Amino acid sequence: xxxxxxxxxxxxxxFEEQQDVKGRLFQTLHVMYRGHYMKLFLSFIFFMLxxxxxxxxxxxMANLINFVSEPExxxxxxxxxxxxxxxxxxxxxxPSQMLHISFMSKAIRHVEASLRSxxxxxxxxxxxxxxxxxxxxxxxAKVLRDVxxxxxxxxxxxxxxxxxxxxxIVAISVTATRSLxxxxxxxxxxxxxxxxxxxxxxxxxxxxxxxxQQVEExxxxxxxxxEMIPVTRAHGLEKIEINKMDSMLQNVRGxxxxxxxxxxxxxxxxxxxxxxxxxxxxxxTIYLAYQGKIPIGDVVLYQxxxxxxxxxxxxxxxxxxxxxxxxxxxxxxSEILFAKETQEYQGRTKLKQLHGDVLFEDVFFKYRDxxxxxLQNFDLHVKAGEMIAFVGESGAGKSTILHLLTGFYxxxxxxxxxxxxxxxxxxxxxxxxxxxxxxxxxxxFSGSIRENIAYGLADVTEEDVLQAIKMANxxxxxxxxxxxxxxxxxxxxxxxxxxQRQRIAIARAFIRNPQMVILxxxxxxxxxxxxxxxxDAMKELVKGKTTFIVAHRLSTIREAxxxxxxxxxxxxxxxxxxxxxxxxxxxxxxxxxSEAVS
Length: 598
Known about the structure:
Blueprint: H1 4-17, H2 24-33, H3 37-69, H4 76-91, H5 93-125, H6 128-133, H7 136-178, H8 180-227, H9 229-234, H10 238-290, H11 296-337, E1 358-365, E2 375-382, E3 387-392, H12 398-406, E4 413-418, E5 421-422, H13 428-432, E6 435-438, H14 449-453, H15 462-471, H16 475-480, H17 498-511, E7 516-520, H18 528-542, E8 546-550, E9 562-567, E10 570-575, H19 577-583, H20 586-597
Parallel strand pairs: 3-8, 3-9, 6-7, 7-8
Antiparallel strand pairs: 1-2, 1-4, 4-5, 9-10
């Protein structure tokens, strides 16, 4: 039996190999259920057994009525045989039902979990630019709601569609052995259902898609609203946010209402048409019995079977909206599964050691959907062990350079060499394990302080954690907490102050013993005292390592080997702190301006 991890890897591999976007729906289903067809087949076999009383009961009832109405034509043994057969098929329903559901559930639940696992894996492999264009709430809706709708569709198919089809086949087949005339009448009902489905198919698909997209928008807005609550409260904007959400919810309500009305009219049209057909069937079979062309008991058989056919077809039609929702959800998750925007770099060369010699050669960069370059003709050679600081106004390209260094983005043109190797050839996973990044916006998760510091390190020791805490000036904070290192910090670290969160992030960098350090305003949230202590500790962290710093406070980069002054994506000045001050250019102006503010 394939493991869940194996199945998710197989899913991802097959989706990546698929180039043609046409026919995604059925290809996606095929990939999901490949390896589970035997379970579904066994489930179907046991369904046939457990459902057999529904098909056999009308025959037994007809036989018994015929026996009672004309006893002289039938043997008494027929009566007992029918009763025994009916008893056996009813009793066997219990074990066959359990086995039917067991095999079906094993397949569907496994696929549900594997599909979510595959989506998460795919999201981890997609490029940062792809994630920047999708709100997290939308992604959550795809992973949670859409996968649930696919699971519901799968169950509806096994519990509704296949049984309905079998009911129609068995009913028409048994009827045909007794009366081709009545069987022909039954067959006429099938085109009616096809016409009804065809008439409503386009409208239902459109309504489902509109509703699904609106729910995704709402999910994204809810996630954003929750994150903005502190800002909203601080500025007294609660009513504005409430009105914004109310407007979004009104749109969801409107789309949902239109979907419900369409489904209701769809179901009502189906019910009216089939009830009229059932009345016609009753009149037709009574007429045949009155003419002596069929036994009286067969009226009950035909009426029961025709009712079964109508209920099955009606069930199919009523299930169709759920099937449509499932297919729309497959379309939704396929947007991720078939996405080709994987990580910017796909190199395979693993770095055993990173010295930190970095070369930017004529680098241009612009973000997607814009013609404006953030970086232009950027050239820079950084020797191993150098500390390079970037300063400049907002939008000058400082953080973009750091994103290029971490491999989140790749140059629009030009290239970056790391230890004389083009970054296109380097395995990003092996490279990133050798660097430490402390971003401006601290990213923590809702675990303990220990878990956040040692994130991703399986063999870290207690001594390593304590050393990182000491270097990040976290000791006093840890000592004041009742649970110490095991204190839960809340979602995104909300139970900690901004400075405390920043120091946890810095401790995370220390513990990795990186060979290259990237600091994006890493001390921006610290008070002056903490900043001084962190700077002293950082001297130990960056000693002998290539270091890139983006800093707002110019005083924090006095020790840098070179300071790069950025403006409009270009390097306009370069030198040491003293050299740039003596130059009395842009850096000198920035220094004077910062002194005036302080």
